[in-house]
Amino acid sequence: MAKEGLFKIGGLENVQINIGKIVSEEDEWEPMGPVPCPEVEDMRHWYMKLLDRYPPFYAPYCDMCCLCTFGKCDLTGNKKGACGLDMRGQQARFVLIACCMGASAHCGHGRHMLHSLIDMFGADVPVDLGTQINVEAPIMRTVIGVKPKVLGDFAKAFDYVEEQIAQMMDATHTGQEGSYLDYEAKAYHVGMLDSLAKEASDMIQMIAFKYPMGADVPLVDIGVGCVDTDKPIILVIGHNVIPSVAIIDYLDEHDMRDLVEVAGICCTAIDNTRYDFKAKVVGAIGRQLRFVRSGVADVIVVDEQCIRADIVEQAQRVQAPLIATNNKALYGLPERSGDPAEEIIEDLASGKMAAVAILDPEKVAEVVPKLAMIMKNKRKNIRTLPSDAEQKEYAARCYDCGNCVLACPQGLPIDRAMQELAAGNPEPMSILFDKCVGCGRCEQVCKWEIPIVDVMQKTALKQVKSEKFKMRVGRGPVLDTEIRNVGAPLVLGTIPGVIAVVGCGNYPDGTEDVYKIAREFALRKYIVVATGCGAMDMALYRNEEGETIYEEFPGGFEAGGVVNIGSCVSNAHIHGAAIKVASIFARRNLRGNMDEIADYILNRVGAAGVAWGAMSQKAASIGTGVEVWGVPVVVGPHGAKYRHAHIGRKDDLTKWDVYNMRDGSKVRCEPAPEHLILGAETVEEAIPLLARLCMRPVDNPSGRQIKLTHYMDLSMKYLGAYHDDWPIFVRSETDLPLARKEEYLKVLEKDYGWKIDWDSKKILEGPLRKQDPQFDPTNLERLLKGAE
Amino acid sequence: MAKEGLFKIGGLENVQINIGKIVSEEDEWEPMGPVPCPEVEDMRHWYMKLLDRYPPFYAPYCDMCCLCTFGKCDLTGNKKGACGLDMRGQQARFVLIACCMGASAHCGHGRHMLHSLIDMFGADVPVDLGTQINVEAPIMRTVIGVKPKVLGDFAKAFDYVEEQIAQMMDATHTGQEGSYLDYEAKAYHVGMLDSLAKEASDMIQMIAFKYPMGADVPLVDIGVGCVDTDKPIILVIGHNVIPSVAIIDYLDEHDMRDLVEVAGICCTAIDNTRYDFKAKVVGAIGRQLRFVRSGVADVIVVDEQCIRADIVEQAQRVQAPLIATNNKALYGLPERSGDPAEEIIEDLASGKMAAVAILDPEKVAEVVPKLAMIMKNKRKNIRTLPSDAEQKEYAARCYDCGNCVLACPQGLPIDRAMQELAAGNPEPMSILFDKCVGCGRCEQVCKWEIPIVDVMQKTALKQVKSEKFKMRVGRGPVLDTEIRNVGAPLVLGTIPGVIAVVGCGNYPDGTEDVYKIAREFALRKYIVVATGCGAMDMALYRNEEGETIYEEFPGGFEAGGVVNIGSCVSNAHIHGAAIKVASIFARRNLRGNMDEIADYILNRVGAAGVAWGAMSQKAASIGTGVEVWGVPVVVGPHGAKYRHAHIGRKDDLTKWDVYNMRDGSKVRCEPAPEHLILGAETVEEAIPLLARLCMRPVDNPSGRQIKLTHYMDLSMKYLGAYHDDWPIFVRSETDLPLARKEEYLKVLEKDYGWKIDWDSKKILEGPLRKQDPQFDPTNLERLLKGAE
Amino acid sequence: MNTIPFDPGCVPGPEMARLADPRTIGIAIKRAKRPILVVGAEILKDDLIDKAIEIGKKGTPIAATAHSMKTFVEKGYTDNVFMCNMHPLANNFTRNDWMGFDGKGNYDVIVFLGVTYYWSSQMMSAVKNFATNPLRMAVSIDRYYHPNAKMSFENIRDTEQFKSMVDEVIAQL
Amino acid sequence: MNTIPFDPGCVPGPEMARLADPRTIGIAIKRAKRPILVVGAEILKDDLIDKAIEIGKKGTPIAATAHSMKTFVEKGYTDNVFMCNMHPLANNFTRNDWMGFDGKGNYDVIVFLGVTYYWSSQMMSAVKNFATNPLRMAVSIDRYYHPNAKMSFENIRDTEQFKSMVDEVIAQL
Ligand code: SF4
Ligand code: SF4
Ligand code: SF4
Ligand code: SF4
Ligand code: SF4
Ligand code: SF4
Ligand code: SF4
Ligand code: SF4
To answer: Where are the alpha helices (DSSP H) in A581-694?
Structure first.
């Protein structure tokens, strides 16, 4: 922040003032805490605290390391490689690399947008989030101690994140870190950076494009069936909304908006609807290959992230011209920003070129709508899915070799379905459609060159075409006013928790899973928040009344709300909400105080994340970034491929000692939350687990009672039994689910040897600890009275 | 660079001036070229030019991708994974990841040092490189268009590099880039960033610590035998010299310098000798495990990079306390900067703790020398290598299972050597010592727990102890004056080339290889430059006269010089020298002109790099950063594990068309240089290859004659034959090696069908092109006359 | 020539499961001091639950992961069935201080049946790499080739064949 | 159970070389339309150069990489020996437009003998993954198990045994 030297002052070109030190004006909104802009060592005490209680468990995904030319090293059995690193270290290193990739994606995206937005609007766009938000950027305030006032201020966040990413990537180099613990600590650091980068990335688009906020944002269309195939269709795919916004602006300015469909896949889809309620959402990542293959799109515009690497080839297959608009994903295409729009349109429309890159969003906007109009006409007679005859021929061709089943990440029984289809029964194949993640790996190995993805889609065509659902527009941050309403019940536990449904679409058993999870918790008056693929995929189902989840439940951050926060970068507002509980409800200082705030959340805010289809490295950094702020995360079974989990041990209660801030005493607590990141095999397993992970040491009796009730109900509902750990959460009879209190007391007496006074129906002996309304838990020594 | 807002002016606390725009004073030393601070798309035309002529060849090191939870994907046979990426793309992505790791290591190191140095000296330390250097930071000038004047100015380089690394890491994320070409282009971008980061990193230490420069730097001691074992020995390992410098300063200030040995391994060793000529160099990375195991060190201080991941365990094994001083390599140790030195010393000396982290260099300096004194005494009776009896027992224990041979990256015949040793013959084992890279993998698999590394070292002990050699101190940048002397002969070819021996110690056949290469070329009056492990390892041999290579050859950047440039970050000065040829000799503008300068070097500066033991990701980014500036690189056979090579095709001459700047015409040239990066299996193969790669289109007749002579001589010497491509380099009879001109003319006539006029001994027909003294080659359209 | 994992990319490295016939695997379980059967979501398919119960009845305790417990309850067999989450369970297998469900110590032969392929594969990888001293052995009797196990069947397409193989394992107990 | 590569970490994935006996490999070379023998630095060890020359004499052209050419020259056998660098050579094997040393087309069976293990392993990987259409096949007759080849020997510790295996290959030509 200090800058010395000679400066020229605008408008006073001939005056030079020698300035010793420039202090940018920064009102003292809060005193600065101990860890502003932390280096990893500054926050290491917190990271190590988490790792001590939730030690890493490794499930190596590969027994070798191939990262340097001493390799490959065989590390099987925790052997050391030529550099001295052992298997645990290597797995943790891989986690760190993945997190760096993920955080770089968020930061790279945000920084790129910031440049564009400053070009478009100047750096002075004020940070104005309306009257209901004062704590505008809770992560930024906390981590770097800065309160952004204008667009340009967010550069500080990216500066910090970039420097730190380089430092952490540095540590992944061969011959650097040697302990899995310090690799994990660094992964936590990167998770924290990731959360900051996301917040900055979403805020800059929000303030520049004036996205709507609050519970009352409208519902928009989602689903393949919503796309009006009578119009020219522009399909946008990715995460960076800037070229799409340019296209939409162009359509508006040229009175073409109603003539053309702008339909999106992945986060660009969500963010488009934040800008333009007419924009259509096709769906999440799982729909990408299949929607492209359907041939409906007349022009495909890709920006960055979550794009199929072979999108150019796929677009070509359906004769849709493709425009790449981002320097992260150029596919070897010529960059044509410098050429006249007409030339580019001509080259693409004539088929002279199948795809081009155009990095200038204005030029993209000039090219795409016109091109779409032309292509709509040209592509009229393009049939891309198999004809009935072809479909038959394909099915007949199947040799039943089973290669496709092996290649399928989900192991779907394509072979059998193909045989059934050949025999005239399309049903088994059409059932697979919903379980298929749309990856195309099956086609890669079919020696008979059956376009399996297309064949499957055709069997499900009717169902696909009828996909017309509603999704609430991504609404960005939780309002301070909402926090004021839910702060107390959340911390006391009477709102039993916040369930955050986030992440990608690599679901083990299809998209319906996320709908099930979200609805179960919404019905139970948890607050359900969602972003990204999860927010889209859960919209694809209806209740018995025919309502989608967004129609059934309100959109506010309130008990029983189902809140579409927004795209993947909007994830940060979920942390933001938890941080705001600490700030607004508990009046903790945020500035430079990350350890304290995360400690607050871990002990008090009953939130849990579920990244059921976590696929990417972003999901890795997102999950890590959720953990590091004190919120546990459950991933689907594919998540085991991230190689690590953070597993608490309820059989070693020494790990659960927490300080009472009031008197500095140590209190042995129940394991709440028990784990920080782990996987589950099925939703039925995940749901009770999530309920368990929402418990917190500070729950008051009625809060604990509610949480325990849900936990036990859900266990019985989905598992047919209770986990044997439930008594550990019982501090006194008042914690017990009311409806079955006696029954439970009996069990406690009989199976767990607790002493019960049956007259008063009070527990005399048994609980680990008593509930103490004065209990003010912390894991940080520095917060104890008398600590310096 | 623009910053707006309200500012307080130092000394005028109550005055606030509203400044529209601050322009930091920056004299117009050169007009700004077209690509200052380039984004990847700004330089993509250059990267793609290189890739078009030197297309990537992939040798997958793994047929699977394990980077996301869709995986593992089997990509065998160039199949596509679930994200649509094919095998080529995945290999290129891995290259990009490796380069990002490498560049991050350099940038992370430099940024960290910059913070420390500014803390120590302030940001105002002037960039003063003496009277013989005006072009102080050629890479920085070229790439970001900045001429650094004070220490603090280097922050601009790191700011830029960090932002770009995050952008490039972003592109490695699943669902981003789809074409191997664009991954490669991005790897080139990162290579360029790497060169910039290294330059900044070396310059800041040079100017802060006032390292010596020029040809006349002294010789210092290198080799295990140089370490005076009568004194307490502090062993420093790594790349970041700051804690070592603090230790040396402390020793000086306390008049202890002559009482204690400061011995180093890896780049910290080299950089220590740039600060203190009394510092000893043990050797390069290959010596690390073995020197530690010898137990000679009384205290081990590690900073960052190239440290064994199990160094804590290894130090413990020889009861040497270890201090970790860098946040990149903390090994899970407690950070004790906050504790009194006495306490730390007590804990370590008593064995209460085996190792600690101390991130504050001042504290390190307080602790280490005293601790070394104490430990010297305590460790007197520690014997770490096997006794004779133990040695015998170990050898006898060997079951001849051969596991160690399989585990050994070099496949050394340890089993047979062990049998011989058991039979009383230590010789075969002692011979292995020099071929062993010291990785310890053999010990990991010996079921009989034979400490193979120790056993081997013991057999070679006499030889090891007699290792007393001389290395010239790393001298940093090539002087402008030197460039003035060699610029013309280099470009004309009469100095046949610059051979840069760089990189790590993963040699296929031992350290002597680099000595052989360097000496061969020095004797032939090439300019030999060296850095890092290469610079150290080549010092470990003597000629017939008993001179080391640094004693045999002068240290100037001149024909027949052997120049120790310095540590790995000093590598940048090798690019710097080439850039300075363009600037000083050819008067090209550098500023924001990277494509032009790289083009200049590719066509004119006959330099080639050899990273014979390239091991790390840094070596990957270094190599890529050498290529991108137009200099070809040869790696040893382990280098094939980097997965790619850039192979020119002499059978497709269309790729070798070059513009003549004078008239814009296209000239079909000989393939010079033919490849940009490739491997060789043996030095005998590499040496003629390097000679070939030094040829350039602009060589004048006498230059080409000299280069061709060396190429052919070396081919005959090492290969017993000529490569069949030599005639392609012959433009006229004047290009032919003088001594055997007639013989060659005959061959050209007979085997290649050229027409010769035997009277005049002139070539009438045959050559691809005539030599043209007016030929002013470029690959860049923009440099052609008439181009805008 | 090589046995291909059910997920062909799931090739972990040089240590891959020995292909074993049901008899061999059955005997290995029989000989174990403290064997345990781990079942998951796929136990609900193809009546495998009945096989699991048979194994339980022969004295091998069962760890019921995912939501498999519900079916045990429905089937009325819960005697030596312990409901748990897989991740903490696998974590416990890698630790020498875990005392097992009965407090008597960790298990030595860990038999996987009816667990999603890639999920159990990862858990067996943890056992293979970290439960080495003393050696604890993961054994798969699922219908897949599981390289991260110590012993495994091949990939079996035919359900009846697979079930009869499981029967053969049971016959040895 | 699995054959371990000479460098055990060198497990590339699901497609690994078939272990083949010398006769089988010999016949495969014999049947090739355009076979080629690639030799490298290790050809100078254990008199393998003589074996190479025998193969050359039987009509298979030889690509002499590293500095092996020198020994061919010394041995006076250079008839169908072509000196080249390995990296560009392997690159050529992956391309359909390379016309071979004789200008008559690329090769179909590429036999490796006497090349540093990890170096040839990588080159065979390139052939395996990119020389697939039409299929060109890398075959190792070195003393190592080479997973990236299509066919390979096992790791052979005994030099005499190895040499007699090479002899057996030659006998088929
Ligand atoms: S870590 Fe991944 S890329 Fe490397 S060897 Fe293992 S599976 Fe292959
Ligand atoms: S980084 Fe270490 S473990 Fe990995 S290949 Fe290199 S030496 Fe082996
Ligand atoms: S596209 Fe669907 S069916 Fe095909 S491999 Fe992928 S998930 Fe399986
Ligand atoms: S890979 Fe093709 S032929 Fe084989 S089962 Fe699948 S669809 Fe049928
Ligand atoms: S990044 Fe692509 S190729 Fe790699 S595992 Fe994921 S889907 Fe497969
Ligand atoms: S320490 Fe030496 S002998 Fe042992 S495996 Fe490494 S290189 Fe081979
Ligand atoms: S691994 Fe040990 S026992 Fe086996 S050959 Fe090597 S030294 Fe001998
Ligand atoms: S040359 Fe390589 S191994 Fe040696 S010090 Fe530098 S980076 Fe480390």
So the answer is: 594-604, 617-628, 683-693
